[in-house]
Every structure is written in structure tokens, then in C-alpha cells.
Amino acid sequence: MDHDCLFCKIIAGEIPATIRYEDSQLIVFDDIDPQAPQHFLIVPKKHIRTTLDLAPVDSELIGHVYQVAGQVARDLGFSDEGFRVVNNCNEAGGQTVWHIHFHLLGGRDMTWPPG
Ligand code: 5GP
Ligand code: ZN
Questions:
Q1: Model-level pTM greater than 0.90?
Q2: Which residue's CA lies nearest to atom 17 of ligand 1?
Q3: What does the pLDDT read at residue 53?
Q4: Is the C-alpha dihedral spanning 53, 59, 16, 69 positive or negative?
Q5: Considering the chain, what is the average pLDDT of its residues?
Q6: How far apart are CA 65 and CA 44, in angstroms?
Q7: Number of domains the chain contains
């Protein structure tokens, strides 16, 4: 755990969040500033700073992220209409929290290309 990290504090239960799913590897909670009717953050419990810091040992974890994304979308009833999974890396990529996470967005038509 990184004691200066917002998402590590949410994982540790030190900061409240609306948790939708949790297992030994990751947690899923509501984004505080939703950009779609359904907007969740899928956050590995391991403190990995950015996508650029992923190591070969993390491959199974990232596969699990996508499997859980589909499972959460199914459980909350927006999988069939469609959804988007987004990872922002570094400043120009839109990253603002320095603990790797994946946005799960649904409940509206997504535009392409993203801004
Ligand atoms: P990023 O911009 O790094 O891709 O995504 C960070 C996300 O974290 C943003 O969508 C932002 O709304 C969300 N966020 C920031 N602070 C908090 C918080 O304290 N609680 C929750 N649940 N989400 C947060
Ligand atoms: Zn962290």
C-alpha cells in the first residue's frame, strides 16, 4: 500500500466508496464524478502507478480486469446494449490518479473518436 495514494486508501477502507464488486485482486466502485449513467472504476489492489509500470507478472491480473468488467456490466444490466472500458495513461492520456485503474462506462451511446 502507498499511504499517499487515494485508491490505496479506498482499497484499505480508509476512504468510503460505493463498492460494486471485490475479490482478492481488484475492487470496483462508483466514480465520484460519473461521465455516463453507469461509470465505475476497476482498480487492481496492487499499487501499480501507470500502464507503463505493468510487468509480465501482471498479465493475468489485467486479463482478470476485463473479465470482471464484463461480469459487472452483465450483473448491472447494461452489457447487451454495450459499454466501454478505458485506461488513461499519464497527463496527455487524461490520468489524474496515479494508481492504475480502468473506467467502465455504460448506459448511453458512446461517441467515437473519444476526445
Ligand atoms: P483518471 O482521470 O485518472 O483516468 O481517473 C480518475 C477518476 O477517479 C476520475 O474519473 C475521478 O472522477 C475519480 N475520482 C477522483 N477522486 C475520487 C474519489 O475520491 N472517489 C471516487 N470514487 N472516485 C474518484
Ligand atoms: Zn495506490
A1: yes
A2: 32
A3: 98
A4: positive
A5: 97
A6: 8
A7: 1
